[in-house]
Design a protein that fits this description.
This protein is about 80% helix and about 0% strand. It is mostly helical and about 220 residues long. The chain has one domain. Helix 1 packs across helix 2 and helix 5 runs antiparallel to helix 6. The longest helix is centred in the last third of the chain and has 55 residues. It is rod-shaped. It starts with 8 loop residues before the first helix and ends with a helix.
């Protein structure tokens, strides 16, 4: 097989460019921006629960020792845990911690779902644009018929590779990237959920309501 026959810049530009424009027209700038953000996140180091737990350990120790009334939230590099610990200190309740975690989780899940939807739509549109490239190339068949062999072969080659490019773009790029975003998100959410559960368990006894309840039980 001659691999050079599979390389056609015109067909690639038609399928790739057409798929991008059609996806943009269907989803809009906002969802396309979210998709690019999620794709960049795949290349960045993923959430490190062990490192975040180590950063929280000192703060947890002080809160358990001094209670939440005198506690102050330390600055953290992770936005969710910075907001969650601030809510914990402000409301002096682990319920506020969980509520803040749920708010961030819902936002992340919504962003991932939009990105996956955009990539899935791109995967559906790519073969359609491949077919469009095929029809366009067939419409450019030379009027002289078989007498113009060179022009005929170019049109047939573009027709074949356009369909191929559409299928490859859909099944080797768009759909796999959508699943990669889902898997990446699932792993991160599991790690974040475990860390929030650990944090809430460590600080439950430091909450004023919990401490009061424990004293009442001992008095009874």
């Amino acid at each position: 097989m001659n691999a050079e026959l599979l390389i056609n810049p015109v067909g690639a530009a038609l399928v790739l460019g057409g798929t991008m424009l059609a996806t943009l027209a269907r989803t809009g700038w906002h969802e396309c921006g979210l998709t690019l953000h999620q794709l960049r996140a795949l290349a960045r180091p993923r959430f490190n629960a062990a490192r975040m737990k180590a950063q929280l350990a000192g703060q947890v120790t002080r809160m358990r020792r001094d209670g939440l009334i005198r506690a102050e939230a330390d600055p953290l590099p992770d936005r969710e845990f910075a907001d969650a610990t601030a809510a914990l200190v402000r409301h002096r309740s682990t319920a506020a911690l969980r509520d803040e975690h749920d708010r961030h989780r819902q936002r992340r899940c919504a962003d991932r779902q939009r990105a996956c939807r955009s990539l899935s739509q791109a995967g559906e549109l790519a073969p359609v644009l491949g077919l469009a490239g095929t029809l366009l190339s067939l419409s450019q068949l030379p009027a002289g018929g078989l007498d113009e062999v060179s022009g005929l072969m170019q049109s047939v080659s573009l027709a074949v590779v356009s369909t191929l490019y559409g299928l490859l773009l859909a099944h080797l790029v768009c759909f796999p990237l959508a699943r990669a975003i889902e898997r990446h998100g699932d792993r991160e959410e599991d790690e974040r959920e475990d860390l929030v559960r650990w944090l809430a368990g460590q600080l439950e006894s430091a909450c004023p309501s919990s401490a009061l309840h424990q004293r009442m039980e001992r008095a009874a």
